[in-house]
Design goal:
- There is one protein chain.
- The chain is built from seven helices and six strands.
- The chain is α/β, with parallel strands linked by helices.
- It has one domain: Undecaprenyl pyrophosphate synthetase (3-Layer(aba) Sandwich).
- A six-stranded parallel beta sheet has the order 3-4-2-1-5-6, sandwiched between helices.
- The structure holds 3-methylbut-3-enyl trihydrogen diphosphate (2 copies) and magnesium ion.
- One 3-methylbut-3-enyl trihydrogen diphosphate binds near residues 69 and 70.
């Protein structure tokens, strides 16, 4: 990181979210507003990923989850889908060395088997290279669906029951969570969906059960460090109760 570490005196450093999840939405509308093709919107959006990672690292937030491609995004044109995977590979090649040098661990959430071969290889390289990094963990959701994750977890658990490795009667919530794509993470504290849409679109259904939700109107390519800092400030103004009353 070449720039000076980000500082915002409005942020209470003692009450930072431990896990931020972002539904990076609005690339297509950004492109439309700028009279460009949708792909140009995705390119502009890729630059935003870097800013979010940098800010989390500078503040010391340990986990960031990013929704890059949903199980439903296959419904888009072949051209757009191909462009998205090409862009992911390009982004990985450009950023991986610096991410690794900055002690960022990359993890993957989703069904990897359906990804194009090259994207899968690039991603696997990323996961292997950064596996021991600890300053910040970035979970990238690609071919990810919250329901698919729950089904995959249920299947993995059932397999362990059948093999005798675990006891069905002892299953509880913490035990089940160990079968999710990235098991040992804190729950999501703050869920941000850019572009003002107010829906979760199948993202991290298990992990967001008590997340504070923000839907800033800003389109993802325009969402920078300042906007993420604003979201953290708003998060810190929320009263989290988890069902209890003071
Ligand atoms: C989010 O931007 C990126 C992906 C879903 C891959 P969109 O492409 O959904 O942008 P809008 O919603 O059309 O503006
Ligand atoms: C959700 O955005 C998926 C990602 C941001 C990767 P979409 O744009 O695909 O969601 P919908 O279709 O508006 O619900
Ligand atoms: Mg969208």
């Amino acid at each position: 990181m070449t720039e000076k570490a980000f500082h915002d005196e409005r942020i209470d450093m003692a009450r930072l979210p431990r896990h931020i999840a972002i539904i990076m939405d609005g690339n297509g509308r950004w492109a439309e507003r700028h009279g460009k093709a949708r792909v140009a919107g995705h390119e502009a959006g890729a630059a935003g990923v870097r800013k979010a990672i940098e800010l989390c690292r500078e503040l010391g937030i340990p986990a960031l989850s990013l929704y890059a491609f949903s199980t439903e995004n296959w419904r888009r044109s072949e051209e757009e889908v191909n462009a998205l995977f090409t862009l992911m590979s390009k982004y990985i090649h450009l950023e991986i060395d610096e991410l690794h040098a900055n002690d960022v661990r990359i993890r993957f959430m989703g069904r990897m088997d359906r990804l194009p071969g090259e994207a899968r290889r690039d991603l696997q390289h990323c996961l292997d290279l950064t596996a021991n990094n600890r300053s910040l963990t970035v979970n990238v959701a690609i071919n990810y669906g919250g329901r698919a994750e729950l089904v995959d977890a249920a299947k993995a658990f059932a397999r362990d029951v059948v093999s005798g490795a675990v006891d069905l009667e002892r299953l509880d919530e913490d035990g089940f969570a160990r079968y999710l794509y990235v098991p040992e993470h804190p729950e999501v504290d703050l869920l941000i969906r850019t572009s003002g849409e107010m829906r979760v679109s199948n993202f991290m259904l298990w992990q967001i059960s008590y997340a504070e939700i923000l839907t800033p109107p800003v389109l993802w390519p325009d969402f920078g460090k300042r906007e993420l800092a604003d979201a953290i400030v708003q998060y810190q103004q929320r009263g989290r109760r988890f069902g209890a009353r003071p």
